[in-house]
Amino acid sequence: MSDKFTATQLEQARVQFGRPCTFMLSVAQLTQLPDAELDEIAFAGRSNVGKSSLLNALFNQKKLAKTSSTPGRTQQLNFFNFDNKLYIVDLPGYGYAQAPEKLVKQWQTVLKTYLRGRPNLRRVFLLIDSRHGIKAEDEEIMKMLDVSAVPYQIVLTKVDKISAAELTTAIAQSTEKAKKHAAALPDVLTTSSEKKIGLEWVQAEICSFFTH
């Protein structure tokens, strides 16, 4: 990861992330999806893994995406327009959610159908809590993305909550599991939204999809 992007590219990405990113709409049903006019990047992960917090940190905006300490707060697909160059999608968390079972199943159906069939979806950033590692629900999503041939990249979150040795282990374990999945990219990103760690690498990855 350290030599994938130059210092100039990292700085260009940082500047680009100062450009407008605005909320477009929330999608509860697939019929509400916007036209596939721009490429899309999606953030997926278990409930309470920190998707919304990471989006806010990347754009240095406290309220771009709604955050909550309650798992399952993001209940729809939330679309953002990034400088008219890219759609960014904050996906509902999978796994535990404090909501009626019928409603949770509805979210999951929409989520999985979107991930399988969105033609302009260029990459999924799969967020994994660095304290807990890849769980069975994560593996399910990874296998589904493999079948759908949607490239995805593991992003470890909350790395400020663990020791350096634990982080080294988490990276090694995630990298090893990624090797076993056809659509997974080899580079594992490490981030902390609270401490602003590793944000520049995620920004550079996202900006690599811009068409100029």
Could you please describe the fold and organization of this structure?
This protein has 212 residues and is an alpha/beta fold. It has 6 helices and 7 strands. A 7-stranded mixed sheet has the order 1-3-4-2-5-6-7, with helices on both faces. α1 (7-16) crosses α6 and α3 (101-117) runs parallel beside α4. The protein starts with 6 loop residues before the first helix and ends in a 5-residue tail after the last helix.
Summarize the structure.
This protein has a single domain, classed as P-loop containing nucleotide triphosphate hydrolases (Rossmann fold, 3-Layer(aba) Sandwich), CATH 3.40.50. Helices cover 34% and strands 19% of the residues.
Number of domains: 1
CATH class: Alpha Beta
Helix segment tally: 6
CATH architecture: 3-Layer(aba) Sandwich
Please name the CATH topology: Rossmann fold
What oligomeric state do the depicted chains represent? single chain
Mean pLDDT: 89
**Residue share in helix:** 25-40%
What is the element string, with H for helices and E for strands?
Answer: HEEHEEHEHEHEH
- Please give the radius of gyration in angstroms: 16 Å
Terminal CA distance reads 24 Å
Which ranges are low-confidence, i.e. pLDDT below 50, for 5 or more consecutive residues?
Answer: 68-73
The count of DSSP E runs of length 2 or more, i.e. the number of strands, is 7
* Structural class designation: alpha/beta
Strand order of the largest sheet: 1-3-4-2-5-6-7
Q: Approximately what portion of the residues adopt beta-strand conformation? A: 15-25%
Shape: globular
Name of the CATH homologous superfamily: P-loop containing nucleotide triphosphate hydrolases
